[in-house]
Amino acid sequence: MEKPRTNELGQPVGAPLPDWNPPPFPEESIIEGRFCRLEPLDTESHAAALFAANARDESGANWTYLPYGPFSEIDEYTAWVESVAAESDPQFYAVISAESGVAAGVLSLLRIKPEAGSIEVG
Questions:
Q1: Distance separating alpha carbons of residues 86 and 1, to the nearest angstrom
Q2: Distance CA 87, CA 82 (A)
Q3: In 67, 91, 112, 113, which residue has its Cα 20 to 30 A from 21's Cα atom?
Q4: Residue 121: alpha-carbon gap to chain centroid
């Protein structure tokens, strides 16, 4: 096994990418997967199903580390969806079950930095 490259501090680093160029800022689009697909978050298409899915968490524990929610009323949740759906960073997506076709959750692509070639999934 080849010894990993290290920097001047002895930390492992990846190989240089001499021909690398920053990618363009990602356009929102449907992303198909084996078990689910991601659709850009949309009030009409997703808010009601996602509000129902979130209501299963009666304790509110799913919201502990989020800067929004929990939402007790559908109108409140719909207003939140409308506000974040218009943003470009973070980009919010509904997670659609491939089995049921129903929106089951939300994720976002955030801290999008094309110049660094990085996107955080949250």
A1: 48
A2: 9
A3: 91
A4: 5
pLDDT string in tens for the chain (122-residue length)? 778 899 999 999 988 899 999 999 999 999 999 999 999 999 999 999 999 999 999 999 999 999 999 999 999 999 999 999 999 999 999 999 999 999 999 999 999 999 999 999 99
- Six-digit token pair at 113? 């930095």
Closest to 122 measured CA to CA, from 112, 107, 105? 107
Structure tokens at 119: 């996107």
What single DSSP character describes residue 34? Answer: S
> CA 43, CA 85: separation in Å to the nearest integer?
8
